[in-house]
Amino acid sequence: MTLHTHSRSFGQGPRKALGIHCTLAHSGALKGLGVALGDQATLLAYDLPSHGQSGDWDRKGNVHDVATDMGRALLTEPMDLIGHSFGATVAMRLAIEMPEMVRSLTMFEPVYFAAAMEDAPALWETYDAQNSAFADAYASGDMMEAARTFNRGWGDGTKWDAIPDTLRQYMADRIHFVPASAPFLFHDSANLLAGNRFAQAMMPTLLMRGDQSSDTTIAINASLEKRLPDVRSVVVERAGHMAPITHAKRIAAEISKFWASL
């Protein structure tokens, strides 16, 4: 399906960059990063399907395909890609499928579970145990509780009761996006793991994670590091999964160093 894609720009630097946010956020989540990079880049950030002011996904077909097609339409010239979590998996897919349009790829904790689980199948059992509270809440139809448990595992550590009601409702209204992402994130619906498709992403890649992140995230990054042809890895101290939002200046500094080295 074709959706309205809402986007906004941050910074006025000469580099053209495309930013893709994480699940349950919106393009404004990348404002801190865009402002911090503002002298170097103009960061075009878009809202994922059913997020922010983009159109609502009709829950038909594959939502990762829809999100990727939205990004594909915005790559009208070679750009630097920056993605966080789910958004990083979209950036990764674009880099593999459209390498001629990607100058560099930056990913912070891409949640591409399929790669790690191919390398270490025992991770399925670990993830299922960690995800059981979310799965139970979602199956029962309690979307608010599902959002709470998801936020507990992937949020910035803020207590649920301290999050404004409007933001909690925003997350609950979009929590269906999480299980809908599974065909790509867990089962590689785009067949990126087939053959040697990662070799197509020849551009320089910066792969980051926080030192407070989960064992699953560590495993994912390790799996991608061995597959990508030109990758450098960075571990950000005193940071977790939401570092592009909570530690935007530090993440921007790492990206600046990366770009300067190209």
TrEMBL record:
InterPro entries: AB_hydrolase_1, AB_hydrolase_fold, AB_hydrolase_sf. One of its GO terms (molecular function) is 2-succinyl-6-hydroxy-2,4-cyclohexadiene-1-carboxylate synthase activity. One of its GO terms (cellular component) is membrane. Transmembrane segments: none annotated. It comes from the Bacteria. Residues 33-253 form the AB hydrolase-1 domain. Signal peptide: none annotated. Keywords: Lyase. Its EC number is 4.2.99.20. The keyword rRNA processing does not apply. This is 2-succinyl-6-hydroxy-2, 4-cyclohexadiene-1-carboxylate synthase. It comes from Ascidiaceihabitans donghaensis.
